[in-house]
Amino acid sequence: LLCQICHKRPATKYIKQISNGVTKELYVCSSCGGQHPLSYVSHAVNVDFFNEAGRSDILDQPCKTCGMQYADILKAGKVGCPDCYIHFRQSLLPSIKRIHGNDTHVGKRGTPSVMVLSNDDRLKELKEKLSDALLKEDYEQCAVLRDKIKAFEQGGEAG
Amino acid sequence: MNPQQNLCIISGRIRLARNLAHTPFPSQCSADVQHALAERIRNEAMKIDNIRFRDMSLSSLATRHTAALVERHLISKEFASKGNGRLLLSEDESISIMINEEDHLRIQVLCDGFDLLAAFRQADYIDTALDSALGFAYDNQLGYLTQCPTNLGTGLRASYMLHLPALREFKEIHRLSEFLSKRGIEIRGCFGEGSKAYGAFYQISNRTTLGIDEESTIQFVESVASQIIDRELEARKKLVSQPTVDDRVWRALGILKTARSISHNEAVELLSLVRLGICEEVLPAASVPDINRLMTEIQPGCIMTASGADMEPSVRDRRRAEIVRIGLAGCDMNG
User: In A, which residues are within 8 Å of B145 by CB distance?
Assistant: First the structure.
């Protein structure tokens, strides 16, 4: 599903407003959702597009290694490279758990191939999480994230 | 496993799916990149101690040769259809490494009887050697990272090819398949699917690869195979006590020893009856491994590769009949 504002990026948020008995609904990406007038986003919830909850990865950004978008993965049913599993981890985990009845490897251990996020990516990710928390009106989580962003911007460890 | 149980096993197979870290999967790579990857993997595989590989580019092989490799379970159908894959094959043909299949590498080891653990140790040895040289994609939570999420974790597929004529005769396979499916085991016909599994040859394999370690997977598949075989042997007792079975077995041998032209499906069906007859001592002693070898040799790609030429189906059917007659020449017709 594409964002109904920019018609380019995959929609990751569902915005719903009930005003004078009239319901308005909009599916937007996190970029457009953030720019949208707040008056409209009076009652917004993070929707569970793929029947999954708790996604924290960046759905409208392609995998840095192979350029695959999350929408491409959904269409193909396959990822483009091993790093896609790390980039889209939170979104893919529920399906993986459904396939195997488990989401944690046991057995032979290899060397973890770490995909390093740049500082910009990490900051952007934190800001997106903050925007999600705001929409959910989870003020406790907002405070935690604001502290992390502040610490990160001051050059500290963002966790 | 007693000798009678072992006779129900045609072969065993271990397969490990592996990929190079931070590298797009083959389907996302250009032909040039795939070629460069194949060269790198090949060069490292050639350095492995104690195993000598023959290096084969599928694009340089005749179609009949590629078909024969599939028939002998040395490569997958998917790999054959890609056409530009690279195959490393050990001298005794028990080990094969498919490069640029769905994943960058598919390491496969075949074994004759009930010995999947030894086959796994061999695959594990190759895996460890290549991992230290190439760096495989691995994640602490998801294990070895593979193109299809169904292979995540160990990337291990452990399978047995079984001969189950009595269970098929009593229409038990469908029920067995449903039962096993719920427990993470897949069963499918080797020649044709479902009730049309010619010759009643079936492959069973694990489906789950995440959250179960390698040895437990193998033990599980072996335990399931052993239980299926016990049920097969029980069903065989009932089957051979039926008055018409010896007649069917002898007639099968008669046709195979005299036919001048025979299709693959018919030959497989009749050889299956002869194999049953030998195992259950309806027929005089003959070698089951010889029958197994014959089963391989009579497949279309194998016939044409051995003859060194492509053939029309009708010509192939005549050649098949000849191979079968020669193969069964030592099988006594005087019961």
Answer: 82, 85, 113
**Mean pLDDT taken over chain B:** 92
**Cα atoms found within 13 Å of the Cα of residue B134, Cβ hemisphere only:** 29
- Number of CB atoms found within 10 A of residue A52's CB: 15
Q: How far is CA B267 from the centre of its chain?
A: 18
What is the per-residue pLDDT across A66-106, written as a single tens digit (0 to 9) for each?
A: 999 888 888 888 899 999 999 899 889 988 998 999 999 99
Q: Which amino acid is at B247?
A: D
CA B314 to CA A159: how far, in whole Å? 71
Contact B45, B53 (CB under 8 A): yes
Instruction: Note whether B212 contacts A99, CB cutoff 8 Å.
Output: no
Q: Which residue among A65, A89, A96 places its CB closest to the CB of B210? A: A96
Question: Is-contact A27 A1, C-beta < 8 A?
Answer: yes
- ipTM for the complex? 0.85
Virtual torsion, Cα B249, B160, B116, B21, nearest 10 deg: 150
Q: Which residues contact B294 (CB under 8 A, 6 or more apart)?
A: B271, B323, B324, B327, B328
> Cα-Cα-Cα-Cα dihedral of B276, B282, B287, B290, to 10°?
-40
Surface of B (132-191) touching A: CB under 8 A: 135-145, 147-150, 152-154, 156, 184
Which SS3 state, helix, strand or coil, does residue A3 take? coil
pLDDT in tens, B24-79: 999 999 999 999 999 999 999 999 999 999 999 999 999 999 999 999 999 999 99
Give the nearest partner residue to A96 out of B136, B147, B149, using CB atoms: B149
> Of B54, B102, B60, B56, which Cα lies nearest the Cα of B77?
B102
Q: How far is A83 from chain B (nearest CA, A)?
A: 6
Tokens, residue A12: 């990751």
DSSP 8-state assignment for residue A103: -
Per residue in B224-233, pLDDT tens? Answer: 999 999 999 9
Amino acid A150: pLDDT: 78
Burial class (CB in 10 A: 0-12, 13-18, 19+), B188: middle
| Cross-chain residue pair A100–B210, CB shorter than 8 Å | yes
Which residue among A99, A108, A111 places its CB closest to the CB of B154? A108
Phi, psi of B249 (to 5 degrees): -65, -45
Q: How many residues does chain A have?
A: 159
> What are the backbone dihedrals phi and psi of residue B224, each rounded to the nearest 5 degrees, phi first?
-65, -45
Determine the residue of chain A that is closest to B211 in CA distance. A105
Closest approach of B128 to chain A, Cα-based (Å): 9
Q: Which amino acid is at B47?
A: K
Q: Of residues A57 and B106, which shows the higher confidence score?
A: B106
Q: How far apart are the first and last CA of chain B?
A: 29
**pTM of this prediction?**
0.78
